[in-house]
User: Fold Nucleotidyltransferase family protein from Streptomyces marokkonensis.
Amino acid sequence: MTGTLTEGGNLMHAVILAGGKGVRLRPYTTALPKPLVPIGDQHAILEIVLRQLAAASFTGCTIAIGHLGEIIRAYVGDGSQWGLTVDYATEESPLGTMGPLLTMRERLPEHFLVMNGDILTDLDYADVLRRHSASGAPLTIATYARKVHIDFGVLTTEASRVVAFTEKPSMDYRVSMGVYGLSRATLDGYTAGLPLGFDELVLDLLHADDPPHAYEFDGYWLDIGRPDDYDRANAEFTSRKSLLLKGA
Assistant:
């Protein structure tokens, strides 16, 4: 495997998770895999991601495919049209978020990027991988700030007594963006061919007192998971194209 090196000597390689059925995005995903639904007039989501990775100096990419995977393989090919070397790993049965990595573990570099194939963001993927490689953490999670507004008065009760009241509060929290820096050694001890979820991996690391690092990001991010998100992405793409596809 050849490619650009990070400052720590790590190959700049990404794994794109593109094997899901995209159930929440139906009917758009009835005939197309979710990473290939179009954004704007010219580009599929996966094409945007591949262009971004190439612009960030990644030269190697493995795409984990499953549902309608042959359509993805036919669309992307060997990746040369974007200056990437692309290979594939096929899920014969659903393996969860992290399970596909176990089947390709031996052909991955020491540190690599993992991401969902349906994300629209201007996140600096190379910086996520560089920061992960330098951190010594088993896993780095790109995180995004969210705020939820509760439309009700919230009561705190103890022994059937109301002890506190807050009128329509807001709660700030950070969510996973579906982009991770991961070290190959973090996968040690898991069995290839068995499902492994992101949640299970994180809980295992916390239980082992080896916590992931957080990469906090506050730029543009959309997870194209529901029709409303997809409609928003299309509505915003023209005005954000120069941000998402620099030089395009």
About this structure: The longest helix spans residues 227-244. The radius of gyration is 19 Å.
